[in-house]
Queue: 2 jobs
Job 1
Amino acid sequence: MSREERIEMLKKEFSEINTYNRPTYCAECGAVMVFKGLGEYQCEKCGARDYDDYGKVRNYVEMHMGANAAQTAKATGVAQKSIRDMLKEGKLEIAQNSAIFLKCEICGATIRSGKYCPKCEMNYHHDLEEMARKARHHGDTFGYSTERRKGEDGSKRFTREQ
Ligand SMILES: [Zn+2]
Ligand SMILES: [Zn+2]
């Protein structure tokens, strides 16, 4: 895949990743949130951590083995539909002893969850972060919703209603 094709793919998928409420900017200081892997993000300036919907669901499912979609939705504030989509799309990890293997859509490496291997996913998020930095310099908030952040006190409170 050429660099141009990859950029096109990133643009096309940006709306998709936003449906999982990727934290683009820090709720504390407004700097760019850097992807740390598995739905976890850290502010490049103040170090505050945040999670996208996938990260919230993943953390919950890890601590509550066997939780169903309804319980997970209630505990994380993530819509049941999003959780079902994550399962369907393989974004939630399959069991370690499963014979089913997924392939990275970019390089074809064998993976246990998601669409991309950790290396390609890092590059993918790095490009999104670059786009966010550029948008920020132009005064365009690029998906950062002040509405959503209003009233949050920095603790993991999920105010998204659905
Ligand atoms: Zn920050
Ligand atoms: Zn890959």
Job 2
Amino acid sequence: MSRILLRGCNLDIEGDKVRVTADVSGFQAIWFELDSKYEWMVDTESVDAFFVLYTWVAMEVGMSLVVEGPVSEQLSTSVVGEVKSMFLTLCPRLKDVAIKVLNPVSSWASEGEVAATGFSGGVDSWYTALAAAENNSPYDYYIFANTGQHGIYDVNEVFSQRAVLAGEALSTMARPLIVVNSNIDEVLRERFQQRDVIGNISCVLLLQAAISRYAYSSSYSPEESGIIEYYDMAIMDPFILPALNTERVVFESIGIGATRIEKLRYIVGKPGFSNKIYVCIEKDLPIRNCGLCFKCRRTQLALESIHLQALIAESFDYQLYQKKRAALLVGLYASAKKDSLDLEVVDELNKRYGLKVLPYRLLASIWCAARKYLPAGVKWRIEAKAPYLF
Ligand SMILES: [Zn+2]
């Protein structure tokens, strides 16, 4: 069996960027890149960030992994043990390979308590940031990463424009958004969701010279979570996150907590909230809230349902919203038959408008029944032109 040998990592400054590249043989080198002003936060003592990723890579391609560079002893013990078994359960396509860590280290200099979390500009990000600030434990840093979540076309442009929008939204919090680019998506073979957690966590491990605590927002409720075969690694957040702790950084899973409507009500009017939300899934340039995808539809109508129309104009094209409002309502009512997040917004709209929304509900029922009989080609064309109807 051929092997991957991870010797260490190299740090290079190119213009105003610092790039950290794995010193590796037997496989393509993974790199991270960020503003050089954050160079002091980068951990070049260990290869922890690369170790977790190459463990996954080795299991994808069926090669053994030998790690010469220093690794956190705590991380090494759990990765070769429980984390490897979690990977195998989650994704049975992976292979059980030999992993050898030659230089585990248990004693690391630590810099004190510095907390960070991810921030995309969306409702969940805002809720996490503002709730921590209200509890007198605001985050010191926010991270925006590219580990494969920005599509496959014009990735660098999509990523950097999204980073700008997230940074502008966050500007009122007076804390930095650290933008971390990487080539993880080019090196790992499984699709993004299958291994999303380790991509994001590796960006934090890279910065563990400064960050000692990282809050990771869960996508699933505790009841849904488990170590099971699944297409999305986030299903095992509460189990895998503590297993990726090192002597220097602790990962905590933040529960879903409030509903979307509750979160919106909470963030609006809080000191620190910039009134700017970025939620869109569309990747057409220039990056903006398209107003028409299912996330834009849900957010705009949720704002309307709780009497916050004024905020729609802050983050979306309000004229487009007014023009498409009837169709957005029909699409939302149709989607709410299957989607619990949309159902919550629909319940709120019913409370606000009562019988006034009856025509949209009726049209949604007719549309739901009719679309089952559409030929695939026609359905596809409608979906491309009017995504808000699906
Ligand atoms: Zn959108």
